[in-house]
Amino acid sequence: MSVSNHPTETPSPGHTPIRRRHRSDLFQQALRLPIVIWQGLFFIAPLCFLVAMSFFIVRNYRMTEAFEMKNWFKMLSRDYFWDSYGLTIGLATLATLVVTTVAFPAAYTLAFRMSEVTRRWAIFLLIIPFFTSYLVRIFSWYVILAESGVINAMLGYIELGPYVMLNTKFGTIIGYMTLTLPLVIILQTFSLANIDRRLVEAAHNLGCRPWRTIIRVVLPLAKTGFIIAAVFCFILSFGDFVSPYYLGGSKPPTLPILIVDTVKSGQQWPRAAVVAVVMMVTLFIVAFGGIAAAYRRRTA
Amino acid sequence: MKSNRMLKWFLYGYLALVLIFIFAPIIFSVIFSFNSDRFPTIPLGSFTLKWYETIWQDPDVWEAARTSLIVSFSVATIATLLGFATAYTDYRYRFKLKPLYLALILLPPTIPLIIMALAMLAWFAKIGLAGTVTSIIIAHSVLTAPFAMAIIRLRLSQMDATLEAAAWNLGADQWRALRRVIVPFCRPAIVSSFCLTAAVSFDEFAIAWFISGLNKTIPVIILEIVTGNIDPQVNAIGSFVFLTSITLVVIAQVVLMTRDKKEKVNHG
Description:
Chain A has 13 helices and 2 strands.
């Protein structure tokens, strides 16, 4: 990197491309490089180290750097690992289906039935939870859903219940929805709002019924955004340990809970690393599959 | 047409229900924080401030609040600086590995926090930063820089590209043009990004829990209380946390929105 910063040189970057490139070197690098170094040291390096750590071994309660497949064999041969894996995928898939379905009418209303100003306010409201403590919200659900909690007390007035909602899959899904619903609604709304209205009107004018318009015109046009929203929903649910732990009862644990338990109960970081790597591989497959599906041209 | 109107009201009602679902936990948490029952339900118990008094007198909470403030403030500063530099680079320059460059910055939020937490824990232990406040600040900056970058990048895309060139032609060098033209134009986005990254850091618990050691932040304290048993203290701390984050988010949003309006008036 050569730096020539003569104070007498006239700074006229727009017109003398060669000199400009020369002069701007320091400037350009000073703005470009910090993030590369920062993310390299504290994002890429930790993730690489995580992968490496899955091959380390623990001796006498101390982790030693090594390259052995022991942890992998140990984890992948256990039934409880595969139970957790199946459960985590199942729950995340269920959450994705439920959230996508629940979000759609809301996003549809926001995109097609509201003025620009109201929509802006609604989106603003939907952004707020994203920046508020997820943990406290889950604790709040814990109290609301409990057997003597708010919902069962209200149902009690109309002689219903009490229902057991905590420590069930229902509880976990409520938690996942708390985490992902606002984001999915926002992403769906944006992709619906970007649809060319004339296409919808054309379908309407040609006598297409509303439901059919939604299924044959609106949804295919908004497909990309919807799939991306669903992928985000899956990733967030798949990686969350709070909902399945506090609302789902953690029996059996999901993969994130397995990581927490393994790390917090002792020195078995390498085994936790195995779980983490398996999770990452799974998420990469889901994400790439999703993106491929989202951008695939319809051949029919 | 009558069925259309019914559909409209049905959809509005549905949207209202969804918003209630989303805000119910926040609202109930605030209500319960003033409620005397140890296990709150309906009908509510009597009004009390004892949960607030408990946390007010708890030195651990004060210590955690101090740590949280230091962390959030530092994170917001670092993330906004990194985000600004990156957004400007993306706005102005074309280069070969740009997609890779952008991926490097935008990827962290797509990795589950629990995985980041484990990776950070192991990495900081290896490089000798484990258990320090610095390590929390670093980890949160990695996580929040993409938000800062996105907000500022969006603002830059609204800028008239000739403004900066005009500054150059009038004799400003690149640094000066950056400081006098680009930064003032991006100010609302910078303020907004500062608030939002602070809010995200202030609420983050998974990574902080794994790597903080003895330097607990507020969310880590909450996590530990929650893991113990039902304790309405959490609602009191939680309300305080909600208030802080919502204030930050509202400031961020208002700053962005009022600027927009002003400019519309100026241009029109």
